[in-house]
Specification:
By secondary structure, the chain is α+β, with helices and mostly antiparallel strands. It is 40% helix and 19% strand. The structure holds 3,4-dihydroxyphenylalanine (DAH).
């Protein structure tokens, strides 16, 4: 009998309850009507008189050990939240899921399409030096884009500025890798411009750059057509208008056929039916040479598009300022969009 009690005592000492339920089961197993301790007390009657004293001590120490264990844990478990008589059938507070910002949605889609076509994402800093933002891109020293009007220069060092376009990442990509180069660079850009419903001093662009042997203007045109049809719809038509950028020659502006059926179309396309979506061109040989790529061997094309313009068109957002006001009613409208 003594061995049995001692075995129980060891079990009691080793017992660690996982929760209140386990503790209660433990209590019932020892102190309940059919519990071990109760059983020993019943057996007490049939123990010979001369052994009663010692037996009683063993059983008592087992009982005390059980009670001590219960006391030690009861408080810990009862510290868990108690029902306070509240109505637990009341509906809970709904969890508010977040939403991707419309700029993020459009950027992700542009990036996904171009990645499928073999472009890899490249990055660059938002604070740039004159070389990467202007000089290496063939901006003459007196080019108006360098004017204090357009660029946020750093007060401490006017050789540094907030990048005015993602084209600066072209220069970084060319410095880092040898052709073939096939990169896109989404990013935030900054211009010292008056804020209105159509322009802002902070906005986003996606840049593209492809350099290899024998890259032609036809490659550029076909790449942009594929992109436009993947993004705007299979039937989308594009047109390229001659334009000028210091870093491309020839340069073009790309329009997509939007249509001219109602007043909104008329307003969005300034009465032409065509919507301008990006600038592009063949990388100027001077730009290749400035980055250490031999223009006799390699050629390339580049393009750059503004994300805001495309997002405004896609989501029918009439004012660019809505993107930066963080009005939760505006942001909530994009919940669930991927
Ligand atoms: N960087 C130009 C801008 O900010 C956009 C652009 C035009 C990028 C032509 C290009 C390009 O890569 O080839 O307006």
């Amino acid at each position: 009998m003594k061995e049995a009690i001692e075995a129980h005592l060891r079990q009691v000492e080793d017992f660690v309850p996982a929760d209140a339920t386990a503790l209660e089961a433990f209590r019932v197993a020892y102190l309940g009507k059919k519990g071990h301790v109760t059983g020993y007390f019943t057996a007490f009657k049939s123990v010979p008189n001369e052994e009663k004293k010692e037996f009683g001590q063993w059983v008592n120490s087992l009982k005390q050990a059980v009670e001590a264990k219960i006391d030690a844990y009861r408080e810990q478990f009862s510290a868990a939240p108690q029902r306070t008589g509240e109505d637990t059938t009341r509906p809970g507070v709904a969890f508010q899921p977040g939403a991707f910002h419309p700029i993020t949605l459009v950027r992700n889609e542009i990036v996904r399409i171009l990645e499928r076509m073999g472009f890899a994402v490249a990055e660059g800093p938002e604070m740039e030096d004159d070389w990467h933002n202007f000089s290496a891109l063939n901006f003459p020293p007196d080019h108006p884009a360098r004017d204090m009007q357009d660029t946020f220069f750093l007060a401490q060092n006017p050789d540094w500025a907030l990048r005015t376009h993602t084209s600066s990442i072209q220069v970084r990509a060319m410095a880092q890798q040898q052709p073939p180069i096939r990169v896109i660079a989404p990013g935030r850009v900054f211009r010292n411009e008056a804020i209105s419903s159509r322009s802002h001093c902070v906005f986003h662009q996606v840049e593209g750059l492809y350099i290899d042997r024998n890259v032609s203007f036809a490659d550029l045109k076909q790449t942009l057509l594929e992109f436009a049809q993947a993004f705007f719809g299979e039937q989308t038509q594009i047109r390229l208008r001659p334009s000028y950028f210091p870093f491309t020659e020839p340069s073009a502006e790309v329009d997509i056929w939007w249509g001219l059926e109602n007043e909104v179309d008329y307003r969005m396309t300034k009465g032409t039916g065509w919507l301008e979506i990006m600038g592009c061109g063949m990388v100027d040989p001077a730009v290749l040479a400035a980055s250490g790529i031999d223009p006799e061997v390699y050629s390339g094309f580049a393009f750059g598009m503004g994300i805001e313009r495309i997002a405004m068109q896609r989501f029918q957002i009439p004012d660019i300022r809505a993107f930066y006001e963080n009005d939760s009613r505006f942001l909530r409208a994009f919940q669930g969009a991927l």
